[in-house]
Design a protein that fits this description.
Shape: elongated
Strand order of the largest sheet: 2-1-5-6-7
Number of strands: 7
Length: 212
C-alpha cells in the first residue's frame, strides 16, 4: 500500500513436480481474495467519518478561521504548504470558512489577536501551527517520508488557546519531495480532525456550563 507502506503477502504451496503452473493455480484464490479486500472502497468509510465529524463540528459551522501553518522538510525546501492546504480543505468540507493570509503585512497577527479582524473581516479563530517532514527510508525503489503537524486554535479577539492537537503520518513516492508533501497532507488532515473534535467538545462544555 503506497499510502501506508503496509505490505500484504499472499503465499501458496504445491508439489514441486507440478511446476510453477501448480503454484499459480493454488495462488489464484487467496490472491483474488486479498486483492478484493485491498480494493474495498475506503471512500465509504471516509464518508462516514466525515459525516460524523461534520455532525460533531456543528458548533463551529459558519465560523471564520484564519489559517497559518508553517512547514519545513528537513534538509530540503518544499514549495507550497501541503499541510496548510489539507487543513483548509478539511475546514471547508465541514462548513467552516478558511482564510489564508497571502503576503500579509507586518504585524498582521498581532492586529488579528487584538481586534479579531483580518482586512476588516470579522474572524472567529486563528488556527496556527507547524509542520515538519523528513526522509525516512528507501522501500523497494520508493522513498518514504514521515511528517508531524501540530495545530492550535485561538479564539478571537484574545490569546487564549481553545484547543491543541497533532497529527503524525507517513507516505511514499518515487520522489522525496512528493512523499513529504503527501505525508504532510495526511498529518495535517489528521491533526485538523482531532483539533475540531477537541474544540467542539470544549465549546459544547462551555455552553452547558453557561446554561447551568
Amino acid at each position: 500500500d503506497v499510502e501506508t507502506t503496509v505490505q500484504t503477502t499472499v503465499a501458496a504451496k504445491a508439489p514441486a513436480a507440478g511446476g510453477p503452473e501448480a503454484i499459480l493455480d493454488r495462488l489464484t484464490e487467496p490472491l483474488v481474495k486479498s486483492i478484493r479486500v485491498l480494493q474495498s472502497p475506503r471512500q465509504e468509510k471516509d464518508d462516514e467519518e466525515l459525516a460524523a465529524l461534520r455532525k460533531l463540528a456543528k458548533p463551529l459551522a459558519g465560523k471564520v478561521v484564519v489559517v497559518a501553518v508553517d512547514e519545513e522538510h528537513i534538509n530540503r525546501p518544499l514549495d507550497d504548504p501541503a499541510a496548510q492546504m489539507a487543513v483548509v480543505h478539511r475546514l471547508e468540507s465541514l462548513g467552516i470558512e478558511a482564510i489564508v493570509p497571502v503576503e500579509p503585512i507586518a504585524g498582521w497577527k498581532e492586529h488579528l489577536l487584538a481586534s479579531g479582524k483580518y482586512d476588516d473581516r470579522k474572524v472567529d479563530f486563528l488556527l496556527e501551527g507547524q509542520g515538519t517532514s523528513g526522509f525516512a527510508a528507501r522501500l523497494q525503489g520508493l522513498t518514504s517520508c514521515r511528517a508531524r503537524v501540530e495545530l492550535r486554535l485561538i479564539g478571537l479577539p484574545g490569546r487564549s488557546v481553545t484547543a491543541t492537537e497533532r497529527g503524525v503520518a507517513a507516505d511514499v513516492d518515487l520522489v522525496e519531495a512528493l512523499a513529504a508533501k503527501k505525508a504532510l497532507e495526511k498529518a495535517g488532515e489528521q491533526a485538523c480532525d482531532a483539533l475540531i473534535r477537541r474544540a467542539a467538545r470544549v465549546m459544547r462544555e462551555k455552553t452547558e456550563t453557561q446554561k447551568q
